[in-house]
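PROTEIN DESIGN WORKSHEET
SECTION A - STRUCTURE
LENGTH: 182
TOKENS:
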């Protein structure tokens, strides 16, 4: 079994896992998360209450890790199906967030229910549609969910450039709770 050590390979500028025997570099790259702010015809937002860790019992958007051999759009639609048994249509990219502390890049779409039916999938305790004023803000799972909901609220259904991390958290390093997030 080869032995890997952390060192700066020749011609590089940062430490990498490198095989001590052959010099192979095992690059570690961020994971891509895909999801969407999904709305019903009446404007309410679809949220999922997590049945799994991390943040079990907290509310989130239908989102998760992108799988190999799928596009970000396919991944966002798949996550909505897995978590909320919802068929959705995507209306464009809402936001792209960098969460450096977790090694994640999150691509969040604006979408709507393509069919009215939805139900809790295996990763959700329950799912529901929420008017803006009824969103359970004290029970939101992750800062990026708050960011995405705020971006959706500020842009509505109008085509707009994708949002990036807020200036107060450009590298995605702040943990919950976020003071003054709402």
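SECTION B - SEQUENCE
RESIDUE ASSIGNMENT:
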């Amino acid at each position: 079994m080869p032995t890997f050590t952390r060192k700066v390979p020749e011609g590089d500028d940062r430490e990498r896992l490198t095989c001590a025997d052959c010099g192979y570099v095992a690059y570690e790259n961020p994971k891509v998360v895909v999801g969407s702010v999904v709305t019903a015809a009446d404007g309410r937002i679809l949220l999922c209450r997590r049945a799994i860790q991390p943040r079990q019992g907290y509310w989130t958007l239908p989102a998760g890790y992108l799988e190999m051999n799928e596009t970000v759009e396919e991944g966002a639609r798949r996550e909505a199906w897995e978590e909320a048994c919802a068929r959705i249509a995507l209306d464009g990219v809402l936001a792209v967030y960098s969460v450096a502390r977790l090694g994640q890049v999150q691509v969040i779409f604006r979408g709507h229910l393509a069919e009215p039916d939805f139900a809790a999938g295996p990763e959700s305790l329950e799912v529901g549609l929420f008017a803006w004023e009824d969103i359970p803000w004290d029970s939101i799972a992750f800062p990026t969910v708050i960011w995405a909901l705020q971006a959706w609220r500020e842009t509505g259904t109008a085509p707009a450039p994708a949002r990036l991390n807020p200036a107060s958290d450009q590298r995605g390093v702040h943990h919950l709770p976020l003071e003054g997030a709402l």
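SECTION C - NOTES
Confidence is low (pLDDT under 50) at residues 178-182.
The beta strands are 4-7, 16-19, 25-26, 31-39, 45-50, 59-60, 63-65, 88-99, 104-113, 124-130.
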